[in-house]
């Protein structure tokens, strides 16, 4: 029998208690300038991924109202939508419920040259499904190794994975809930499930700690982002994405071959 390849831990695991929630951006102008540069870096990386046939997955987990949607919008502002897909994961539909819980994620994996962004993910198995009792203990306990093997299979096949957890304090979360409730164009974001989850914050903190301890691996480590200050959280998240997607990848746009360039100029009747 072949020996099963064990997914290795990344070392010291992240902890919510280690996150500095006081981090802020000095000025709105500094935020705007830095965001623009990061978005251009992401665009250059995407062009490389398309040109070289690379694939990437960006996973967003975090507290309700932690800013996942705002960060995803800033990521996509300058990217080519033909090669970047956002999957917003909610409760599984009846068809998905009749299959293995990973099925709906397997069918959303990125194709050659694509980036897939998951707003919530397969980690729901060990978070909401665990805390709310939607999955039996043996099912969610088994899921840690299933998830590790799933991610190792993807990284072995060349997929780059970025896992982000957005952290905010209970007080800041309450402030954001209040803002959503009071503003008509934000009110639709607030659901009964958000309130239910907030009431069980201690249970979720325990589940998050276990998730970090058991799924923070060398091939797919967790990155906890301080999102107490929205502008700081956006920059920190996108900087992390650029760093991981850009490892060993050229950050300049792909070059055209000299022969193709020469033929194009000649065919169009232009001079270089």
**What is the CATH architecture term?**
3-Layer(aba) Sandwich
Radius of gyration: 21 Å
CATH superfamily: P-loop containing nucleotide triphosphate hydrolases
- Overall form: globular
Name of the CATH first level: Alpha Beta
Q: Please provide the count of β strands.
A: 5
The topology string of helices and strands comes to HEHEHHEHHEHHHHEHH
Biggest β-sheet: count, sense, barrel? 5 strands, parallel
What structural class results from the helix and strand content? Answer: alpha/beta
State the domain count: 1
Mean pLDDT across all amino acids: 93
Helix content: 40-55%
Major sheet strand order: 2-3-1-4-5
- The number of helical segments is 12
Oligomer: single chain
CATH topology: Rossmann fold
Note the gap between the termini. Answer: 62 Å
> β content, as a range?
5-15%
Give structural notes.
With about 270 residues, the protein is α/β, with parallel strands linked by helices. The chain has one domain: Rossmann fold. Helices cover about 50% and strands about 10% of the residues. It is built from twelve helices and five strands. It has helices at about 30-50, 70-75, 95, 105, 130, 135-155, 170-180, 185, 190-200, 200-215, 230-245, 260-270, and strands at about 55-60, 85-90, 115-120, 160-165, 220-225. Strands 2-3-1-4-5 form a five-stranded parallel β-sheet, with helices on both faces. The longest helix is centred in the first third of the chain and has 25 residues, at about 30-50.
């Amino acid at each position: 029998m072949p020996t099963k390849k064990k997914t290795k831990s990344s070392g010291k695991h992240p902890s919510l208690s280690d996150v500095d929630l006081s981090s802020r951006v000095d000025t709105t102008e500094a935020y705007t300038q830095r965001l623009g540069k990061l978005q251009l870096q992401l665009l250059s990386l995407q062009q490389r991924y398309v040109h070289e046939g690379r694939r990437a997955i960006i996973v967003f987990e975090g507290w309700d109202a932690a800013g996942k949607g705002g960060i995803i919008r800033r990521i996509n502002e300058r990217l080519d939508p033909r090669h970047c897909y956002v999957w917003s994961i909610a409760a599984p539909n009846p068809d998905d419920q009749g299959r293995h819980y990973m099925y709906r994620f397997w069918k959303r994996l990125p194709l050659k040259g694509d980036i897939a962004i998951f707003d919530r993910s397969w980690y729901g198995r060990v978070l909401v499904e665990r805390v709310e009792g939607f999955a039996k203990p043996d099912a969610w306990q088994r899921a840690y190794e299933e998830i590790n093997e799933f991610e190792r299979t993807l990284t072995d096949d060349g997929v780059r994975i970025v896992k982000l957890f957005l952290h905010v304090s209970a007080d800041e979360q309450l402030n954001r809930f209040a803002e959503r409730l009071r503003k008509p164009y934000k009110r639709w974001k607030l659901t009964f499930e958000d309130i239910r989850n907030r009431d069980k914050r201690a249970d979720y903190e325990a589940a998050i700690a276990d998730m970090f301890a058991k799924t923070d691996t060398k091939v797919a480590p967790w990155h906890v982002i301080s999102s107490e200050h929205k502008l700081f959280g956006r920059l920190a998240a996108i900087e992390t994405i650029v760093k991981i997607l850009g490892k060993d990848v050229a950050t300049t746009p792909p070059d055209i071959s000299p022969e193709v360039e020469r033929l194009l100029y000649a065919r169009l009747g232009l001079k270089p």
